[in-house]
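Supplementary Methods, section 5.1.

A reviewer requested that the exact input to the structure prediction be made available. We therefore reproduce it here, unchanged from the version used in the analyses.
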Amino acid sequence: MSALQAVPIHLRRRREKVFGNGRPRALDRNAKVRIMHQARALSRRTAKGKHYGVITAKAVDVLEALLWGFHNASSGLCFPSYERIAERARCARSMVGEAIKMLEAAGLLTWVNRIVRVRERCEDLFGHWGSRVRVIRTSNAYQFIDPKGAESRPNSSKSEFPPGTEIQDSFSLPSTPKSRPLDPTTPLDAALIRFGRALGALS
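The structure derived from this sequence is encoded token-by-token as follows.
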């Protein structure tokens, strides 16, 4: 059990809100079976007097509903509402939210907030009609973490949570162009030389 998993859920740092479509990941049947096997192993009782392990049996039911009921194996898309998940997992809607927090803390899935932008007509303070864009949160987009994924990649850690958010892409800054010597015979370079001398940057 990691240090994060040892801390009660209500005492953990609040999750940063991330918006977008996430990074859908296609999973075949074997990958889904591996994820479910790991979930059932994490749900086994780990301490005397405790009825469950890192995650509860109901969290396993929620994961099973997401993986086998809503996840598109070929596209990787999975964005059901809490109501649909609760119906499939046969639990209360409030239990779905708690189960998803447990599953993410256990390293079985991650998610982002899906949003849509709606343009609506409105009136301003001066009585003029115009339009504005309103952002509405629709549901969550879930991404499942195959326990074999990190092991199959060479020189990689087993952590599936890299720095930054899921929708951030790494990029390289363009290299600084090399400076060229100024030619006093051209009008532009002559003006730059005079400007640099006025500022004291050039002698």
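The chain has one domain: 3-152. These observations are discussed further in the main text.
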